[in-house]
Specification:
heterodimer, A: mainly beta, five-stranded antiparallel sheet, about 15% helix, B: alpha/beta, five-stranded parallel sheet, four-stranded parallel sheet, 11 helices, globular
């Protein structure tokens, strides 16, 4: 992979989640997007990685990605320099990001913002504010 | 009336939606307060109106809330069948609540959808009481169960409590077990494999450090327990009727069973019962299931008074 001039590097993604992350970020990119799948990793065994040219991810996007891959590591690049490097922390309450998979939950019937309390960050465990069901990382579906 | 007792200051105007919203100290303070409502019927809620919205049928909860309200001098309006409400015309729950709040001082809601009571509470500034939201919560049932446990055993800690029957779908059992994690007890979870406690609840017991054993055989643990809490195994949960036939009488408790496990046990059941507890145990001193129904009114009197800003403390 070539060095980035401006943009975001998302490293340490759980292997197999890169395409999901791209889906979260949408398909409209100004610059090149480089994806590494199933790369060797000392820490993780296997990992995915994404480099996005000319785009800095938003806090909302970071929170979504943290739900998919809680140990993801973000590097914001400006003029070839890493200006910010962080592993995201999930907020205590996640609003309007997750759809409740419980068909009988009132949030699937009435027009309300979905709300999920974060009970654990790694592995992720969230609880629906309305029906109180807990969801693990694999059960989370994003809006 | 008087100033609320310590731990109960925040109850006035508050909602009662989920047992997850309670802290241990609040539970204990509430149970102390509820005790003051035993046999109490003075018109401390005169002029207050309860809006009782039952979007699905219920006999016991509906009647006991009405009884509690009327014994304290208040009155009740509402419906006991969603077909007669505006929901049948397509009105949203939030709109229904915004209309009803103009007619009453406290809203009581039972709804088939999980989370409906929480949404109702977000739609009004009046106190909202959850009288059952789908398979999720039924907090006054849990409060009356705790009240009955303390009444019969004199404490809420250091007890051996067996839950028997449908541990997969029983809202009553889930809520009581979750609430008991505030206390130090040993739990026995007895059910057929197909009706075991869901993994998410087992996870929670592990997280809270609660001591528990799962078993299919009631008699392997029964001689040791202080309380047996048994529930109805619902036929509609079984797609295969043969499977239902296999388990329906598996945990039937009768006088012979009680003699076999020793007499000093409290028998609890949220009712209605089918075959789970034999009628020959109705006069057994440890049978507490009709006391639970009686305590339902006591506990609901306390809930209504506290939420409406009254306290006997």
């Amino acid at each position: 992979m070539t060095a980035l001039r401006e943009g975001t590097v998302i490293d340490h993604l759980v292997a197999g989640t890169a395409l999901k992350v791209l889906f979260v970020l949408g398909i409209e990119f100004e610059g090149a997007v480089t994806i590494g799948l199933n790369l060797d990793s000392v820490k993780m065994g296997r990992k995915d990685m994404i480099k996005i040219d000319h785009r800095e991810v938003s806090q909302q996007e970071v929170a979504k990605i943290a739900l998919i891959s809680p140990r993801a590591r973000f590097s914001i690049i400006r003029n070839f320099q890493v200006v910010n490097k962080f592993t995201p922390e999930l907020p205590k309450l996640i609003e309007n990001l997750i759809v409740c998979p419980n068909p009988s939950c009132i949030s699937n019937e009435e027009r309300v913002k979905t709300k999920f309390g974060v009970e654990r960050s790694d592995p992720v465990k969230v609880r629906c504010h309305y029906c109180e069901r807990t969801l693990s990382e694999e059960e989370i579906k994003l809006l | 009336m008087t100033t609320p007792a310590a731990g109960l200051e925040d109850f006035a105007g508050r909602d009662l939606i989920s047992m997850r919203d309670f802290r241990r100290e609040e539970l204990l303070a509430f149970l102390d307060e509820a005790q003051r409502y035993e046999g109490f019927s003075e018109p401390i809620l005169a002029g207050k109106v309860m809006g009782s919205l039952f979007f699905e049928p219920s006999t016991r909860t509906h009647l006991s809330f009405n009884s509690a309200m009327q014994r304290l001098g208040g009155s009740s309006i509402g419906f006991a069948d969603a077909k007669v409400s505006s929901t049948a015309k397509g009105e949203s729950l939030s709109d229904t609540i915004r209309v009803v709040e103009n007619y009453c001082d406290v809203v009581l809601i039972r709804h088939p959808r999980e989370g409906a009571a929480r949404l109702a509470a977000e739609s009004t500034s009046l106190p909202v009481i959850n009288a059952g939201d789908g398979t999720n919560q039924h907090p006054t049932q849990t409060l009356l169960d705790l009240y009955t446990i303390r009444q019969t055993r004199g404490r809420l800690d250091n007890l051996k409590i067996a839950f028997i029957g449908d541990l997969k779908y029983s809202r009553t059992v889930h809520s009581l077990i979750e609430t008991l994690t505030h206390f130090d007890n040993e739990l026995f979870l007895v059910s057929p494999t197909s009706l075991r406690m869901p993994a998410s609840f087992i996870d929670e017991l592990d997280d809270r450090g609660t001591v528990y054993t799962e078993d299919e055989d009631f008699f392997s643990i029964a001689s040791d327990v202080d309380i047996i809490y048994t529930t109805r195994i619902q036929q509609e949960r079984f797609p295969d009727p043969i499977e239902y036939e296999k388990v329906k009488n598996a945990y039937r408790i009768d006088r012979a069973a009680i003699e076999r496990i020793g007499g000093n046990v409290t028998l609890m059941h949220p009712l209605p019962r089918l075959n789970e507890i034999s009628t020959d145990l109705d006069d057994f001193p440890g049978s507490a299931y009709f006391a639970q129904a009686r305590n339902g009114v006591t506990v609901r009197k306390a809930v209504l008074s506290l939420l409406l800003g009254q306290s006997r403390g």
